[in-house]
Design goal:
Blueprint: H1 2-5, E1 8-12, E2 27-29, E3 33-35, E4 41-43, E5 49-55, E6 62-69, E7 76-80, E8 87-88, E9 92-96, E10 100-104, E11 110-113, H2 115-118, E12 125-128, E13 134-138, E14 141-145, E15 153-154, E16 158-161, E17 166-169, E18 177-184, E19 190-196, E20 201-202, E21 207-208, E22 222-227, E23 233-237, E24 242-244, E25 256-262, E26 268-274
Parallel strand pairs: 1-26
Antiparallel strand pairs: 2-12, 3-9, 4-5, 5-6, 6-7, 6-8, 9-10, 10-11, 12-13, 13-14, 15-25, 16-22, 17-18, 18-19, 19-20, 19-21, 22-23, 23-24, 25-26
This protein binds 2-acetamido-2-deoxy-beta-D-glucopyranose (NAG) (4 copies).
């Protein structure tokens, strides 16, 4: 019955797909860089995802460092770094061994970096993989990944731990942080809620999964939000039971690209788009 109240829509977008060419094989070594100019990106081996600079619509001299679905003709951004600080034309992204990814403006101002999350580790390479995850690898382990630092979107195979929030953007084309959050709280309850600017204080939720330990003597608390390989979004409980958030879908992830996005109006939406064969 919770499903009836849940503000989640399935939206099928059938636009004419065109193909595009893969330029690199997804593996990027330390020392590599990208400039904030048109068409500057690193592409996953299959060509499905690109990581690079997206030119903002309202100002052609500002760029967003982002990941997008590279074969969907309508630019579909699934992750972004500097939503609150767009990069002026000519800014540079460097892959460094000590700070991982570093984005500098042409005047040398640092706009964004991954150094805090890397936490003293050493980076050997970066990988734009075919699931849409950008990873930094050091000493054969993952030191940073975009899947663990989400913005407004989840992709199939992505999992969110407790207290890791999705944040809506300000508007369709403004990538600054907006008013809505989706977060699995420490008690295991998944909430959709607004925040009070400029603080990050969460208001009363407008949706909750009621999967905290306290909601029933019998229930096991939520431990992760999972968007699985088949395109199903659910709260995984500690006892491995699932609280499903999305309805049954008919298309396979072999034939469709899926994403779940917390839209700028606060709606959590499952989108699909047919792949080109
Ligand atoms: C990326 O390339 C480097 C150098 O060619 C190699 O040592 C490393 O193993 C590769 N990493 C991955 C994840 O393929
Ligand atoms: C960027 O790519 C698009 C599509 O391939 C092309 O039409 C455009 O001319 C390119 N722009 C630049 C500056 O290379
Ligand atoms: C990296 O970014 C953080 C903010 O996320 C900032 O506090 C820090 O100064 C930056 N690091 C460097 C070396 O500029
Ligand atoms: C994803 O979850 C759905 C619903 O629980 C399940 O039917 C499906 O088998 C799962 N897919 C994978 C790849 O685990």
């Amino acid at each position: 019955m919770a499903l009836a109240l849940f503000p989640l829509l399935i939206s099928f977008l059938f636009l004419l797909p065109v193909s595009s060419l893969a330029q690199t094989a997804g593996n990027i070594t330390v020392g590599a860089s990208l400039s904030a100019v048109e068409n500057s990106s690193w592409i996953s081996p299959s060509g499905d995802f690109a990581f690079g600079f997206h030119q903002l619509e309202h100002n052609k001299d500002l760029f967003l460092l982002a990941i997008w679905y590279n074969k969907i003709p309508e630019k579909t951004i699934v992750w972004y770094a500097n939503g609150d600080k767009p990069a002026p034309r000519g800014s540079k992204l460097h892959l460094t061994s000590d700070q991982g990814l570093v984005l500098n403006s042409p005047h040398g101002e640092q706009l964004w970096n991954t150094s805090q999350t890397i936490n003293g580790g050493v980076v050997d390479s970066g990988v734009m993989d075919d699931s849409g995850n950008f990873l930094l690898i050091g000493s054969n382990s993952i030191v940073w990944e975009s899947f663990k630092n989400p913005t407004d979107t989840m992709l199939p195979s992505q999992k969110l731990d407790k207290e890791v929030a999705l944040s809506s953007r300000r508007s369709e084309t403004n990538f600054a942080k907006g008013r809505f959050r989706m977060v699995l709280k420490s008690d295991g309850n998944l909430v959709l809620t607004t925040i009070n600017f400029p603080s990050d204080y969460l208001n009363e939720p407008y949706f909750e999964s009621k999967t905290s330990a306290g909601d029933s003597d019998l229930s096991s608390p939520g431990s992760q939000v999972v968007f699985n390989e088949s395109g199903y979004l659910f709260v995984l409980r500690e006892n491995n039971e699932r609280f499903r958030l999305t309805p049954t879908i008919t298309g396979s992830t072999k034939d469709f690209y899926y994403r779940v996005t917390l839209d700028f109006d606060g709606m959590l939406v499952l989108y699909s788009y047919p792949k080109i064969r």
